[in-house]
Amino acid sequence: MQKRSDFSDVQKGMIIGFRAKGGSISETANFVNCSRAAVVKVYRARQYGTIQNQRRGTCGAPRAIDDRGERRLRRCVRVNRHATVEKLTAQMNQGATKSVSTTTVQRTLLRVGLRSRRLVNAPMLTAGQCEVSYSSQCMCLVRRAQE
Predict the structure, then answer these.
(1) Which H or E run includes 147?
(2) Is residue 36 in a domain?
(3) Using CA atoms, how far apart are residues 120 and 81, in angstroms rounded to an integer?
(4) Mind listing the pLDDT tens digit for each residue in 37-81?
(5) CA dihedral 6, 11, 16, 19 (to 10 degrees)
(6) Is residue 2 part of a domain?
(7) Residues 102-143: tens digit of each pLDDT
């Protein structure tokens, strides 16, 4: 049995993938051949963001918008989610010591996951569309059963 610090990136990825697919802690531990505590620690580290992007590391220039800036950008989007990138840039530069460009704000929005600047989890289908798709799935199942 290996400890969490002994895992390679591939093994950590296997643990994270197996747990994300719905595998239990015990099943994941048996699959990777490690202790259950190691599975919990690796998955929790991934879940709470203590595992950083290994490809970027500490190389290159520091980010123009750090964690505090990202939280501020999220608040700006939450207040007005229909704001354009130019308006968000103006809000970010207002009272800031270091100004950022619209390209930086756009990249940060994409990196944070605000592609359509929507912070709420909205259903992709309306109720009517769900009924139509559900009825078509039932019809497919009936046709398969008849064959």
Answers:
(1) none
(2) yes
(3) 10
(4) 989 888 888 777 655 555 555 677 888 888 889 999 999 988 988
(5) -100
(6) no
(7) 999 999 998 888 876 555 555 566 667 667 666 655 555 555
Residues near 102 by beta carbon (within 8 Å), at least 6 away in sequence: 85, 86, 89
Same domain, 47 and 83: no
The long-range contacts involving 128-132, CB below 8 angstroms and separated by at least 24 positions, are none
95 near 61, Cβ under 8 Å?
Answer: no
**133 in a domain, yes or no?**
no
Provide the pLDDT for residue 124: 60
| The model scores a pTM over 0.70 | no
Query: Which range of residues forms the domain containing residue 108?
Result: 67-112
Query: Please, which residues have CB within 8 angstroms of residue 101's CB and are 6 or more apart in sequence?
Result: 89
Cα 19 to chain center, whole Å? 15
Most confident option among 1-5, 56-60, 82-86: 82-86
Alpha carbon distances (Å) from 46 to 75, 105, 107, 136: 24, 25, 23, 38
Check if the beta carbon of residue 35 is closer than 8 Å to that of residue 25: no
Amino acid at 17: G
